[in-house]
Specification:
The chain has helices at about 5-15, 25-30, 40, 50-60, 70-90, 95-105, 140-155, 185-190, 190-195, 210-225, 240-250, 270-280, 295-305, 325-335, 350-360, 385-390, 410-420, 435-450, 465-475, 495-520; strands at about 110, 120, 125, 175, 200-205, 225-230, 260, 285, 315, 340-345, 370-375, 400, 425-430, 455, 485. It is an alpha/beta fold. Strands 3-4-5-6-7-8-9-10-11-12-13-14-15 form a 13-stranded mixed beta sheet. The N and C termini lie far apart (about 95 Å).
Length: about 550
């Protein structure tokens, strides 16, 4: 018995008798479509901007849409700028900022819908030779720092690596369409520009991208490796396909280092798509401000970030993160991720209970987090006991911003001993924390003992002549502090002569900071320029600058 019936045996013999054959269609039917070589598409030397504009107009006509007037204006300004720069082939950082200022005025859109005016730059270009852009003199460098800080305050970024551009491509561009609706056909038409030019920054903020258009445009960005910094903020209509294409872009792009996806709700499919991409992405900077992350979206995101080894800066402000489940998730992130360098949690609701979770997790950080931003998080002086326990053990934390929390003098006194012991902290933000002269005296005692702290921010506090006197005396001993941010306007005192004393002490403190900076050969931060509001709190770590 073989286990096969007579019918099965017959079927097997028939199959064995058949010959296997492979057939191919005719040659003319084998190729259904083709794409041009990516290398050939990016030979910028072979195309003039006039050719690119013409190709863009023809593409718009083919897709039955009108050419975007802002895109045309940007390309025309770009053309005239390149002609000018090619003649000089070099310009200083100050010249670069002058060009930036002109373009901000020429292509800026003012958005008055928010509490503060925000300038949305429509276009920025930087043709430059393959040299690092250097300040031509110390005054230019000072102007550069002040202008750069102002640009960051209005939402425009100058990447820290900015300054060198490949001359073969000849140009480095920022293109943006604030408030411009980009439908599917408009996005398709932009391919003629994307295939010919490389971009440092592409901003699609508020472009009202719909699902198909977003998917098409993001696929182009991936294929042409179009940008190193992409902003898709305020585009809540991207849909499933758009987020899927963004996920593919993040996973496969070899040049994209920063993504801004702010001011739109992080729904389930968006959180899942982003998290999947972050498992293998090369992204180093991620901005997710005001994206309704609290709850499940944060849980999904942290699950991926715990295994991410590339991301260095994470910005999660204005997400209503609470002091319970959300803070526990953030604590897990800090326990298992050792590559994150900056974590911005400003304008949330972590409170004292959430700070406890975060501080417990910080003890696991051996070589990781350097900048922690906790401003405006409903933290009180009670939460300082948790920081007091962990600060002496932290070896890498360089920036701690606790501004706009009701710490009061009691909170500063609680931190006193731990701040004296800590040897890593370089910048401490205590703006608008309810400090008076008593708290300023405590800070003066800390400065007298600290050998490394470089910046202290105590703006928007009721520090009068007595507190200023203590800080001034501490600076005669301290040799590391080169920037002490104080309110520049004089405050009311019981005695009139004390108001004049405030003015004298503010000048003396400024001079002492300059002396420290000079002694340190300018390797640290320069004194802050006077600010009209005198209270625009800095929630990021300012770059170190080297004197010429």
């Amino acid at each position: 018995m073989t286990g096969h019936s007579e019918e099965d045996t017959t079927s097997l013999s028939v199959k064995e008798g058949r010959e296997k054959r492979v057939s191919f269609p005719p040659d003319e039917e084998m190729v259904s479509d083709f794409v041009e070589s990516r290398v050939q598409l990016q030979e910028a030397d072979s195309l003039s901007l006039t050719d690119i504009i013409l190709a863009y107009k023809q593409s718009c006509e083919k897709n039955h849409v009108k050419p975007n007037p802002k895109a045309l204006d940007q390309l025309k300004v770009l053309y005239s700028g390149i002609m000018c720069i090619k003649q000089t082939r070099h310009f200083s950082r100050f010249d670069f900022l002058l060009i930036l200022g002109y373009l901000c005025r020429r292509f800026a859109v003012i958005d008055t819908s928010r509490s503060e005016l925000e300038v949305r730059v429509s276009m920025f270009w930087l043709p430059a030779p393959c040299h690092t852009l250097m300040a031509s003199n110390s005054n230019s460098q000072c102007h550069y720092l002040h202008m750069a800080e102002g640009i960051r305050k209005i939402g425009f970024l100058i990447p820290p690596s900015y300054g060198t551009v490949n001359l073969k491509s000849g140009i480095s561009i920022l293109i943006a369409f604030p408030g411009e609706r980009l439908d599917y056909c408009s996005c398709e038409s932009l391919e003629e520009i994307l295939k010919s030019l490389q971009f440092d920054f592409i901003s699609l903020q508020g472009a009202e991208l719909e699902e198909n258009g977003a998917s098409s445009l993001l696929d182009m960005f991936l294929y042409y490796e179009s940008a190193t910094h992409l902003d898709v903020s305020s585009n809540s209509g991207m849909g499933f396909s758009g987020w899927l294409s963004l996920s593919h872009l993040l996973r496969q792009s070899g040049c994209l280092w920063r993504l801004d996806a702010c001011n739109m709700p992080m729904v389930d499919y968006a959180a899942q798509a982003l998290s999947k991409a972050l498992l293998t992405s090369r992204l180093t900077v991620l901005h997710l401000e005001n994206t309704c992350l609290s709850g499940k979206p944060l849980f999904t995101l942290v699950g991926a970030l715990k295994r991410n080894v590339a991301l260095q800066e994470l910005y999660l402000s204005e997400n209503n993160l609470n002091g319970y489940q959300d803070s526990m998730q953030l604590a897990d992130l800090l326990k298992y991720n050792n590559t994150l360098r900056t974590l911005d949690l400003s304008n949330n609701s972590t409170s004292d209970s959430g700070l406890e979770e975060i501080c417990d997790a910080l003890s696991f950080q051996k070589t990781g987090l350097r900048n922690l931003i906790l401003s405006n998080n409903h933290i009180t002086h009670l939460g300082m006991s948790h920081l007091q326990n962990v600060l002496p053990r932290l070896k890498t934390l360089e920036t701690l911003n606790l501004g706009k929390n009701n710490l009061e003098n009691r909170g500063i006194h609680t931190l006193k001993e731990s701040l004296m012991i800590n040897r890593s902290l370089l910048q401490l933000g205590l703006a608008a924390t309810g400090i008076t002269c008593e708290g300023a005296v405590t800070l003066a005692e800390i400065l007298a003992e600290s050998p490394q702290i470089q910046r202290l921010d105590v703006r928007q506090n009721q520090v009068l002549a007595g507190g200023l006197m203590a800080l001034s005396l501490a600076l005669k001993i301290n040799r590391s502090l080169i920037r002490l941010d104080l309110d520049q306007h004089l405050k009311e005192e019981k005695e009139d002569f004390l108001v004049e004393t405030q003015k004298t002490l503010l000048s003396r403190i400024s001079d002492l900071c300059v002396v420290n900076a000079t002694a340190a050969k300018g390797t640290a931060l320069l004194p802050a320029p006077p600010d009209p509001a005198d209270c625009a709190e800095t929630t990021y770590s300012l770059p170190a600058q080297t004197a010429e």
